[in-house]
Design goal:
Blueprint lengths: L3 H19 L2 E5 L6 E2 L5 E6 L19 H8 L4 E6 L6 E3 L9 H4 L5 H4 L3 E3 L1 H14 L1 E7 L27 H12 L4 E6 L14 H18 L8 E7 L13 H4 L7 E10 L8 H9 L2 H16 L5 E9 L10 H14 L5 E3 L6 E2 L13 E2 L1 H12 E6 L1 E2 L7 E8 L7 E7 L5 E7 L2 E2 L5 E8 L8 E3 L19 E3 L5 E3 L3 E7 L1
Parallel strand pairs: 1-19, 3-4, 3-12, 4-7, 5-6, 7-8, 8-9, 9-10, 10-11, 11-12
Antiparallel strand pairs: 1-16, 2-15, 13-14, 15-17, 17-18, 18-25, 19-20, 19-24, 21-22, 21-23, 21-25
Length: about 500
Amino acid sequence: KMAPFLLAVIAAIAGVAAREQAQPFQLSIDTRRAVAQVDKREASITWDIYGLQPNPMRRNAPFDLEDQFLRGLIANLHPFVLRISGTGCENVVFGSAGNTTVPAAVSKLLRPNGGGTAPFNAAVADWDRVVGFAKATGGDMVVGLNLLLREWPEGGAHGCASAGSADCAWDPTNARTWLEHNRDTAAPVVGYELGNEPGCFMPEVNLSGARVAADFGLLRQLVADVYTTPGARPHVIGPDVGGCWKGGQGPRSIEPILSHHAPLDVIAFHHYVLGGSKTARYNVSDFVAAALSNITRSTVQSYAAARQEYMPQTPMWLGEGATTYSQPLDASFATLYNYIDILAETGLAGVGVFAMQSIGDLFQVPSGNRAGPTPAHTPTAPFWGMVLWKRLMGTAVYSVDAGDARGMIAVAARSLRNGTGGAVSIALANLAAEDRSYAVQLNGARQTPTVCEVYLVEPATDPSGAYVLINGNVPQYDAVTGTVPPIPPRKLLGCDAITVPSLSVAFVVVR
């Protein structure tokens, strides 16, 4: 029989432990000095150039770019970069001008059918619809040009292997036609890229980093020739490397080009946390594990280190990326976990823009048998996450010490967008298996603001679903214009106990 004294001691210890477990996890944010500044268009999107095919892939263009509701819906994300490129970039010829094509001997060395499409001519009228969409939504266009339109020796049979030092250069003939058309139609193009993930094919066609760096010099000259007003010239952006450099995976793939000091206005790289596969099917647990891993941090830091070594004064963007690609969960609530984690890590590294792949994941496209009051293009969880980011998260990046919550949270902190008086916005995802409560400390002391504003974002069903609740309500938008009205926050007196359910997200404004 246990002595009463010992029972009392055990009960007391249990009571202390219970009280300790009930204490909120502390999030400490230092606002005395911003770690970095990011672009006001930080949260941006991509539209895959596959969609310019005469018979586009269903994933990329089953929707009508002239649909007024869809245009209004995407306009809620202004300002943003609309990056238009993708694996098919190396298969696109603009219009019918000129006879420049990628030789068959070169095309067969690419990923099968160039990654999902055969070479094709993009109709001018189709391109103008994309331009009209960008103008209507306020998107700043970045356009990918075909890197493999070049002066191939021997018809490309040996790639560039037999070329002399001045041979095998990029042929800008078709690109000039495209740039001149964009200039004459006042297309809102803010940048041109040359190639998409060139590490996937450069070794196969014997295309060196020095040659590609020189090709960016040709693109810079072309932009200057076409856009004659210096202050109005689009940027030269690249090299848009991904993780498939043969013999040099991941961030190493950027070095062969940056080491030759390619004349870039913006350095761009790509990052998919889990990659993608036509056979593998990821689940919510995979998305959670990815957000809790160091994959994104190490990848971003490695690219940033390459920039620091070779071109430290040049801005850097994550030009294309997501958790995965071509996966059923791309439009799900679970996408928000890595979305926040990516923006947290890119922000801390001073990466100015993250263009999420892709615009088609921001809404559910209506099926042929859809009926009832639900409008076409129903916005998904990634859309609502981006809306809140745009409305709340500013351009000054602050570090967050998650303390004991580290390892079960993805969290980012920014200045309040358009805010004053040192207001801070936080985006966090509770990736623990249980509900958790958080308290915010600013500059090492418990913050006692007059009001703490919370936007709690929960899956409407479960994290594999596409729809959300914000503060317990279905988020509203105009079914005709697509306009999203102001979203009211839940106001707390102080930020001492912000409860976030398991696998849910919260945006918090500390005033």
